[in-house]
Amino acid sequence: MAEEVKLFGACGSPFSSRIQVALKLKGISYEYIEEDLTNKSPLLLKYNPIHKKIPVLLHNGKSIVESLVILEYIDETWKANPILPEDPYDRATARFWAKYIDEKCVAAAGKAFWAKEKEREKAVEEAWDCLKTLEGALKDKKFAGGETLGLVDIAANFIAFWLRSFQEIFGVELLTEEKFPDLFKWSEEYVEHPIIKEYLPSRDELIVFLNKRLQNLK
Amino acid sequence: MEGKESEVVLIGTWASAFCKRVELALKLKGIPYEFVEEDLENKSELLLRNNPVHRKVPVLLHKGKAIPESLVILEYIDEYWTKAPRLLPDDPYQRAKIRFWANYHDEKIAQAITPIIFSEGKEREKVIEDFQQLLKVFEEGIERDFQGKSPFLHGGNLGFLDLVVGTYACNYQAFHDSIAVVFETEKNPQFFSWLMALKDHPRIKETLPPSDKLATKYKELFLPPYSKRIATIRERYLQSPKA
To answer: Where is the GST N-terminal domain (chain A) (predicted)?
Structure first.
């Protein structure tokens, strides 16, 4: 049976980029469908009726949503170049840090960027707490898998690229070399990784993406 | 001869559903463990050392290593002790759907209890409606995603979603007696019927805390005067932007 793999994504979305990286790592051919997030397609709404978000992976007609769930699905379905380690404890550690990035760091960074003037200081401090935790995790070798990209490396794309780009655009200093030297160094190397690099948006594309997000928030 | 290293220790509290789900998983797999009751108002060095990031329960200690976060722990248990019963099915698509709904339960449904606890009057009525709407989405989603083959009590066995939902929502009587009525058969007939069936399952029955004891605990925690810990949670909720 021919494999039919489609990915509904949006240029500029870190979550979408994660899936593209994983599919590339595994050497999986797929059709990419760009979604306009200000005008979501009927297909997207059909395949992700609950959250109505990208990314959505369609595999032989079956839809899988939520980037971390999709990454696990991809790893379990296509065995080449594993994203998750074999050892159960290492797997648990990877899941823990991937969740931490999404549930705490992405949320905290978002709050800091979009915060109103009077709430900004507190939001920035919370984001710094997250980055401090990641800096510690990095030192303990909990992520930055080296040559091979694992679940946490892929999930950390937000930190290495999007967070750093947004802080320039919004003028809010979060991940600085002075405060987080190891994390900063890691982020510089990260964005040079050939597979990661291929799926990073340009500055212009990022601005377009942000404007659409703003439109949706209004 | 098993050394100390292979001992399983669960740091938790008797009243926490997230801890109960881990206990239930260990019991189902027949894994002996030591339960260490934590005082959340006065967190132990053991907890803080083993979950420095979140400082929360449950934390599983196994072979000297710590695993926090209940959903991560459940997957660890299933992957380390691969003997039956399996908590997750083998098929990647089924696993993906179960993970999706476990996340939905914890991130949406369980989180929606906080506004109910800390609101009153008309506002409380509204957030209860919101909660019941989330349950409706859950009901419809399970129906659509599992198409009649309910993941609950599949073949009479307890699986991942049974543990996630059952240990949390089967405590509804205690919540109704102490805070507010939120699970109603007229509003969410399907969800309510799952709860009825789960509540009667012997392993769930023996694991859940007694309803009156839990109701007393909920009153202690969630009615004023609040402990410092609960006051902080309440403050954070009151300050957060409302939908």
So the answer is: 3-82
Give the distance, in angstroms, between the CA of residue A162 and the centroid of all CA atoms in the same chain. 8
Task: pLDDT band for A216, please (50, 70, 90 cuts).
Answer: confident
Q: Read off the DSSP letter of residue B154.
A: G
Q: How far is A194 from chain B (nearest CA, A)?
A: 29
pLDDT, position B18 = 98
Looking at the DSSP bridge assignments, the partners of residue A6 are A31, A58
Nearest-Cα residue of chain B relative to residue A129: B53
Cα A150 to the center of its chain, rounded Å: 13
Q: With cut-offs at 50, 70 and 90, classify the pLDDT of residue A142.
A: low
| Cβ <8 Å between B96 and A133 | no
Chain B residues in contact with chain A using a Cβ-Cβ cutoff of 8 Å: 53, 62-63, 65, 67-69, 72-73, 75-76, 79-80, 92-93, 95-96, 99-100, 103-104, 137, 141
pLDDT digits (tens, 9 = 90+) for A24-46: 999 999 999 999 999 999 999 99
Contact B98, B159 (CB under 8 A): yes
Strands B59-62, B8-12: pairing kind: antiparallel
In what side-by-side order are the strands of the sheet with A5-9?
Answer: A31-34, A5-9, A56-59, A62-65
Which residues on chain B are in Cβ contact (under 8 Å) with A96? 67-69, 72
Distance in angstroms (rounded) separating the CA atoms of residues B131 and B202: 28
The per-residue pLDDT for B2 is: 47
According to the model, what pLDDT value does residue A196 have?
A: 94
Q: Does residue A146 have a pLDDT over 80?
A: no
Per the structure block, which two tokens stand in for A205? 């594309």
What sign results for the dihedral spanned by CA atoms B183, B185, B186, B191?
Answer: positive
Candidates A189, A81, A110; CA nearest to A143 is A189
Query: What number of C-beta contacts closer than 8 Å exist between A and B?
Result: 57
Q: What percent of chain A has pLDDT over 90?
A: 82
Cross-chain CB nearest to B93 (options A50, A62, A93): A62
Q: Distance between CA B194 and CA B183 in Å, rounded?
A: 11
Instruction: Check: CB of residue A82 under 8 Å from CB of residue A72.
Output: no
- Residue A102 to residue A155: CA distance in whole angstroms: 8
Question: Nearest-CA distance from A77 to chain B in Å?
Answer: 6
Low pLDDT (below 50) residues in chain B: 1-3, 5, 243
Torsion, Cα of A33, A35, A40, A44 (10° steps)? 40
Dihedrals phi, psi of A146, to nearest 5 degrees:
85, -135
